[in-house]
Amino acid sequence: MSTNTVIAIVVAVVVVLLLILGLSFMARSARDKKRRAEADRIRDEAREESARVEKREAIAAETEAKARAAAAEAEAKAAEAARLSDRAASHRNEAASSRDELDSKFQHADELDPRRKDDVDAAYAAAEKERAKHEELDATSRTEHDGLHPTERTDRDGLHATERTERDPQHRVVN
After folding, report:
1. Quick one: pLDDT at residue 57?
2. For the chain, domain boundaries
3. DSSP string for 65-125
4. pTM, whole model, 2 decimals?
5. What angle do CA 140, 146, 147 make, to 5 degrees?
6. What are phi and psi of 173, to 5 degrees?
7. Residue 154, phi then psi, degrees to nearest 5
8. 8 Å CB contact between 141 and 96
9. Phi-psi map region of 173: left, alpha, beta (phi>0 left; psi -120 to 50 alpha)
10. Is the pLDDT of residue 161 over 50?
């Protein structure tokens, strides 16, 4: 083999190697370009999604703040309701003791009054007082449970509690 042939073979091998190297570089460059384009597209999508996520986070924070405000308002209303309930119980107790004092005064006046009828009327009046007192206590205990004032409740006949009995000036029960 001659030197020219060897040189030609070596040059051909070098050219082929350079071509292979050039082609692999171009293929790699094209692949990198595709990857960069794909990465850019993914980043753009992520930015758009990021804006939507930030909007959702803002809505969640706003809703959370509303929930805290509503809870605070509910606590304040519950405290107000408890305070009013205590006040109503206090008024109810004062009214009951005042009613007892008035009843005892009426009873004492009835005992002193010479115009008082016989003992049958007195027994009837005492029984009616006792019945009314028990009804009032029952109405008070129901009021604590259902929130209705005794005058807002009706009996079986459709009469309000205040319509069932009336008292004459001498504190006798009449219907």
Report:
1. 95
2. 49-93, 113-175
3. HHHHHHHHHHHHHHHHHHHHHHHHHHHHHHHHHHHHHHHHHHHHHHHH-TT---HHHHHHH
4. 0.39
5. 75
6. -80, 130
7. -115, 155
8. no
9. beta
10. no
